[in-house]
Write the structure tokens for this entry.
Amino acid sequence: MAARQMIIGMHLGNGYGNLPGAWRAPSVDPQSYTSFDAKVRHAQAAERGKLQFLFLPDGPTHVGDLANEPPHFNLDVMVTLAAVARETKRIGLVATGSTTFNEPFNLARQFKALDVMSHGRTGWNAVTSSGEDVAANYGRRLPSSADRYARAHETVQLVQTLWGSWGKDAWVHDQASGRFANAEQVAPVNMSGKFVASRGPLYIPPSEQGQPVLFHAGGSPNALELAGRFASGVIGAAFTIDDARTQRAAFRASAERAGRNPDEIKFFAGLMTTIANSRREGLDRRITLSGRTFTQRASYLGQMLGLRLDPARLDEPLSPEQLAGARPSPGDPRSVQALKIAREGWTLRDVLAHGVIDYHPVIVGPAVHAADHMQEWFEAGAVDGFWVSPDIYEDGVDAFVEGVVPILQARGLFHREYDGATLRHHLGAPTQYGIDPRLAL
Amino acid sequence: MAARQMIIGMHLGNGYGNLPGAWRAPSVDPQSYTSFDAKVRHAQAAERGKLQFLFLPDGPTHVGDLANEPPHFNLDVMVTLAAVARETKRIGLVATGSTTFNEPFNLARQFKALDVMSHGRTGWNAVTSSGEDVAANYGRRLPSSADRYARAHETVQLVQTLWGSWGKDAWVHDQASGRFANAEQVAPVNMSGKFVASRGPLYIPPSEQGQPVLFHAGGSPNALELAGRFASGVIGAAFTIDDARTQRAAFRASAERAGRNPDEIKFFAGLMTTIANSRREGLDRRITLSGRTFTQRASYLGQMLGLRLDPARLDEPLSPEQLAGARPSPGDPRSVQALKIAREGWTLRDVLAHGVIDYHPVIVGPAVHAADHMQEWFEAGAVDGFWVSPDIYEDGVDAFVEGVVPILQARGLFHREYDGATLRHHLGAPTQYGIDPRLAL
């Protein structure tokens, strides 16, 4: 039997990359934010690397420094993925869609239409919205977390039920007999919950994978429960192997409590990459593009280490006194890694350029370092795979695909070819049409 | 100065065409309902004919005979148009989006994303939903017409305001200076009405036409008022020149009352086509494909003419007694044309095959007949153009493009080339960004 292999997704965000200054790189079209050519190009690059899915985060608002940095998200995830679906063949397409401010019927319709268009490659990252700024775009106040998750449970069940409301074998389309559909297999769902309701049916036949695959993102007890019931994939965030392993185990246990096989839920940790010939070259790339943000980050790093760091002294390493007096914040798992880097003697600027206060572990340097990191986490049982966020899509996807992927393949850790055509196949997710009968009310 | 020329749109519906049996035609892929290849192909055919826009109706439900006929609408209009946008260059893309069951922020985002993707070719047919079956898909009862139109007015204003909330010159994207945006030109809208509200801003820069163009469909006094204020195009329905001229004049007067130039609103009448070498050939095509529906239609035609028509005698012309005793229903403008056809001596089957009880005037026969019809209506001041619904997309678009378009061009009634690249240009609609200042509250 073949050894277990990791599954890799790629973050597809604003068209530039995870570095705030990615849009300024000489190789980058500064209009990539509105360029669907650019997004298709990045998706195709990921597909050349046989990556199993693209992941599009979303959150219809922007909190940031727009004068200097682009918005974080796609103009619209469904419109973007429709373009990508037509211009790729195998890679899965996972879009975030909020259960808080969308109608279930509209979610069901758009995701299943995309699934049909992509020939069974679509996933729905079903999340709850947070932030009063998002709620305000819908003229509302943010509901309580309990209400948001209650609505999410109802919405996911209703959407999946609508997906199954056009019977699996309903569509006959037999020109000779004139029978278009087995109408008796296209039935209303008539579901009504506390928060959402719909009559249905939804008039969309099954895709090649039946219906979209569910993802979830988040680490709260509520997220754990929702993902355990419904998700085939979890978009995770973890800074250490221990943290990832604990999270993965919790999601697996939650799936088991819901009556599922724990292998049905895959945990993906985030990984940010600057692949370069050397660590020095990688650090310089990051400094050139996003060094402007380091002054502010220096004081944040100081808080994390319990030190007063002087943003005016970015070119000096931390002093022996500072290193000795550092008290890494126990509440921030990044602080241990940050102190480790600082102790290697890098200047404050270089320490920051390592991405020590970023949202995920950051690899800066040769491809083999990323491969080593991924292998270590994977073999420790901490993850089923990763979702990778390159510093700059324009060349960072290629750097990952041409540098890291072949190493993982040579080590037997990653497949060499797509051996199936649907996202459900790529994930090893079980067949499902409509709601999971084990979970039906 | 160039003579006024007509504007032509093409209906892009379920992938088959306006004949209920279109899906059974030998040339048709019976899976066109789920085939985006088919929809792209039909759109490209319309673009070869230099048509100014595609029109996608929508109404998230289906009332019909699914055993024998496909659903009427696209799987999802936005997903479909995203594919079409990437694979066409000039033709406008007009999608129907309900103001009744959609969040304004979501509408604003998807339509403007599509407008950016299509480089300024998008139009929004902003309608109110009707039918309890649609409302039930959203777990609601249908609001009163007054409430639906009040919400529509608020929604259109809010959506247009959100479109303008990213200032026209806000996006600098200057790599050298590092200035991404003039953040002070990206402002919240903070609009709050009785039915909808949003804070904004929407983070999408202008398209090549600034923002999508508004369309409306409907003939009620409420529709007249909404279209008069906001619409650049009206998707109309009229059976006679007089009816069309009256409607067009009413929309123009409504625009004038709203402070606009009446030429800013274009009225498009529907036209259904079966283009064939002869009328006989066209009738046979329609009978072969949709003759099954004629039994039911015979009794409907009987009601329309005040006659008892025997569905068992489809192969006989109406008798002299029947023709003499016919009393065409004064409430149904189709009845005059139906009686005229019946008096020509066609069999009952052939009368029905003329499409006399269809939703729009139907041309069955040589291309020149369609061209004559269009010229007559256009020169009578009854329309600014048409939206054409071919019997079968797979060859009916080509038949129109290769047959009717060259005649109209030779007569100087239709342009020979796109002389602009945006829908706003194709329609001659004035520049607008954000809400029309003449209408601002």
Chain B touches chain A through 69 residues (CB under 8 Å). Residues 7-166+192-273+371-427 of chain B form a domain with the TIM Barrel fold (CATH 3.20.20.30). The CA atoms of residues 146 and 222 of chain B lie 8 Å apart. The two ends of chain B are 37 Å apart (CA to CA).
